[in-house]
Amino acid sequence: MITVKITKKQFEFYLEKAREKIRIEGWAEQGRNAELKSNNFACSFATENEFVKILRKNFVTSKARGYNYVGNVSNAPEDIIVWMNKEEKEIDIKSTKLETFQRFQKMCYPCDQFYNNQIPDILIFCSIDIQSEFVIINYYGFYMKEELIEKLKNHSEKRYSLKNQEHFFTINYPNNDTMDLIKQLDKVGNQQPLEI
Question: Per-domain residue ranges for the chain?
């Protein structure tokens, strides 16, 4: 597991960007919970951008969309692009609040992304704990695409979230370490990864 700690002020920057995205997309006008969605996107922006920083610290060649895209998931650029054995791979990161992780010990994956075949090459699961002064992100592990599809098809439960107004699958967390993935990714100038 890789753990990252950021200040509440850093998280509030991500929250401001998320609120701007939700306002532009008109979520409140659609009758959806704009503040909840803003918090969800802030968690996504934080976990994605902080993971890119980990990649850079470990000399991993990568590029990321950042937090400046507007539009639905079907129009969104890839979260993070890396290379593995000189092959381009897309990384997606799914986060959940720490208290939800501790309660259910499962990860959620949106049904629409599965049904629309929007499955990344690599999916990383993490939790986020928003405290009074700091935000703690734990990157637990990852699934490669083929394993993720198999889990979603054969080892998942479909549920509906009234709060988020969407269907999702629940699956077990992967039994590996995110640092193991980083070690497999192509590095700038063949540098060796750092132990975090």
Answer: 2-189
Cα–Cα distances (Å) from 45 to 15, 18, 155, in that order, read 8, 8, 28
Token pair belonging to 161: 């979230």
Helix or strand run (H / E) with residue 129: strand 122-130
Pairing between β-strand 2-7 and β-strand 134-144 as defined by DSSP bridges = antiparallel
Using alpha carbons, list the distances in angstroms from residue 15 to 20, 37, 55, 122, 180.
9, 10, 23, 25, 30
Judge residue 61's burial from the number of C-beta atoms within 10 Å of its C-beta, 0-12 exposed, 13-18 middle, 19 or more buried.
middle
The answer to whether 22 and 45 are in contact (CB under 8 A) is no
What confidence score (pLDDT) does residue 74 get? 54
Question: 114 and 84 in contact (C-beta within 8 Å)?
Answer: no
Bridge partners of 94, per DSSP, are: 125
pLDDT at 100: 87
Q: What is the mean pLDDT of residues 171-180?
A: 91
- Match 């700690």 to its residue by tokens: 5
Dihedral sign, CA of 48, 54, 56, 62? Answer: negative
How far apart are alpha carbons 9 and 142 in whole angstroms? Answer: 28
Are 191 and 57 in contact, with CB atoms under 8 Å apart? no
Nearest to 94 by CA among 104, 77, 106, 81: 106
Write down the pLDDT at residue 113. 87
Distance CA(30)–CA(34), nearest Å, equals 9
Q: Where are the alpha helices (DSSP H) in 94-140?
A: 98-104, 111-115
